[in-house]
Design brief:
The protein is of the alpha+beta class. It has a domain of about 90 residues: Sandwich (Immunoglobulin-like), CATH 2.60.40. The chain is about 15% helix and about 30% strand. The protein is built from two helices and nine strands, in the order E-E-H-E-E-E-E-E-E-E-H. The strands form three sheets. Strands 3-4-9-8 form a four-stranded antiparallel beta sheet, with no helix packed on it. It has a three-stranded antiparallel beta sheet with strand order 5-6-7. The radius of gyration is 22 Å and the shape is elongated.
């Protein structure tokens, strides 16, 4: 039994790992247009692209779970010098004439996420790698000028 209910009338469990999809069922019940249903599917794919961003002493590290995608299907770009853009497309499997789908739960469609990077990064040394469906983008941090001065004076005093 769920412990809480949301303002949208959905019952949720606070310990559940389910991802709430704000576009779930948006057009399914009220509109039968395939183009609008495709839009809802695309919007859902964008909403469900989950990316972690952590800062270490050396770099900013972004990790995205992109199961089933090849590295050629994902773009990592830099916009305006300081905006990291991660995009791609997961294509829906085509339906054969002798096949019948019972459930279609895996998201498909285009996805796009943007992150404004802080000033202390070296974008010219940004690296991206894709392994086992996980995209990792590493953006090294520029050395802290105050720390460089302190280190310099420690060396000089010795």
């Amino acid at each position: 039994m769920a412990l809480t209910s949301s303002i949208f009338g959905r019952r949720t469990d606070p310990f559940s790992m389910d991802i709430w999809d704000p576009f779930d069922g948006l057009f399914r019940n009220s509109v039968s247009s395939p183009s609008l249903q495709a839009f809802a599917s695309d919007a859902s794919a964008i909403a469900n692209t989950r990316i972690d961003w952590k800062e270490t002493p050396e770099a900013h590290v972004f990790k995205a779970d992109l199961p089933g995608l090849k590295k050629e299907e994902v773009k990592v770009e830099l916009e305006e010098g300081k905006v990291l853009k991660i995009s791609g497309e997961r294509r829906r499997e085509s339906e054969e004439k002798n096949e019948k789908w019972h459930r279609l739960e895996r998201s498909s469609g285009k996805f796009l996420r943007r992150f404004r990077l802080p000033e202390n990064v070296m974008v010219d040394q940004m690296k991206a790698a894709m392994e086992n469906g996980v995209l990792t983008v590493t953006v090294p941090k520029a050395p802290d000028r105050d720390q460089i001065r302190r280190d310099y004076w420690l060396i000089v005093r010795q």
